[in-house]
Structure formats: C-alpha cells, structure tokens
Amino acid sequence: MAIEKVREYFKTLGIEDRIKEFDVSSATVELAAQALSCELAHIAKSLSFKIEDRTLLILVAGDAKIDNKKYKAEFATKAKMLNPDEVVEYIGHAIGGVCPFAIANDGVKVFLDVSMKRFSTVFPACGSSNSAIELTCDEMEKYSHCEKWVDVCKAYDDTLSE
C-alpha cells in the first residue's frame, strides 16, 4: 500500500508521526479541506504530466489551476496530464493520494508551484485517499526532492496569506 511506503520514507526522517489519517475521504481538495478543517488553498494538490518520455509531478495550492501559457513557457510544450493508470504506474500512488514522497519511478521530476508560498504550511496527501501531512514550504522542498519552484498557475488569490 502506498501510504506504508510514504510512512517508511517519513520514518527515515523521524516525522512519520505527523501523518494524519482520516475516517473520511480526503481524495479531493474539497474533501481534504473538510477533513483538515482548513481553507481549500492550503491543500497541496498534486498534478501529474507527461512530456514525451518524462513524467512531471507539480504540486500547487488547492485553489490554483494550471495556466497553459505559463506551463508552456516553463516546459516548452503543451500540458498533457497522465491518465489514472499512468499515474499509478509512474508515480506509484492512485489519484486521491498522489504525493511527491516515496515515488515509484526515480525518473519522475517534482516541481513546486509558487502558489503555495503564500502559506506557512500546506497539506499534501501521503499516498492514500484518506491521509495528509502538514509541512512548511521549506520542508516540502526538502522532502519532495523537487527540481525547483515554478510559476505555472493562475486563478488563485495571491493576496491570501497565513
């Protein structure tokens, strides 16, 4: 089970006890925000893309959407999302629990969108449809082994902050 792999990963960092598991689903941004009693924007939403033979995982704030022009400027191609089977195959987590931790394929490149930098902490999933962990943006960067921060989103309220 993917959450066990994530738990093992966080155990090596000494933070496995910070994983939250819920009796209800947290598989969507809305459900995760309800389970955590937080704003939608604080959920770190994982979006999976394919560029030729490469797989990208981009984490964005829960209220953000991909801006196709910004995405193309950053990655020199049109955004093409993975289908649900490809997400499981390449990332190792099913939709609803996708996260940048304990990824199945070492070739997956992780990026973090600046839409999350508005907050002191955000909540990514932990490999299951009923889990999350609260991390600072610095922790997200460190523990996700991201390539870099990018600006590929629109439709979020950049006046929000915590």
DSSP E strands, number: 10
Query: How much of the sequence is in beta strands?
Result: 25-35%
Low-confidence stretches: none
Q: If you average the pLDDT, what whole number results? A: 95
Helical percentage: 25-40%
Read across the widest sheet, the strand sequence of neighbours is 8-6-2-3-5-9
Count of alpha and pi helical runs: 5
Quick one: overall form?
globular
Report how far the terminal alpha carbons are from each other.
34 Å
Computed Rg: 14 Å
Sketch the major β-sheet. 6 strands, mixed
**Structural class by sheet pairing and helices:** alpha/beta
Element-by-element helix/strand order = HEHEEEHHEEEEHEE
Write up what this structure looks like.
By secondary structure, the chain is an alpha/beta fold. The protein is 27% helix and 25% strand. The chain has 5 helices and 10 strands, in the order αβαβββααββββαββ. The strands form 3 sheets. It has a 6-stranded mixed sheet with strand order 8-6-2-3-5-9, sandwiched between helices. A two-stranded antiparallel ribbon has the order 1-7.
Summarize the helices and strands and which ones pair or pack.
Elements: H1 2-13, E1 19-21, H2 29-36, E2 43-51, E3 54-61, E4 65-66, H3 68-75, H4 84-91, E5 109-113, E6 121-124, E7 131-133, E8 135-136, H5 137-144, E9 148-150, E10 153-154
Parallel strand pairs: 2-6, 3-5, 5-9
Antiparallel strand pairs: 1-7, 2-3, 4-10, 6-8
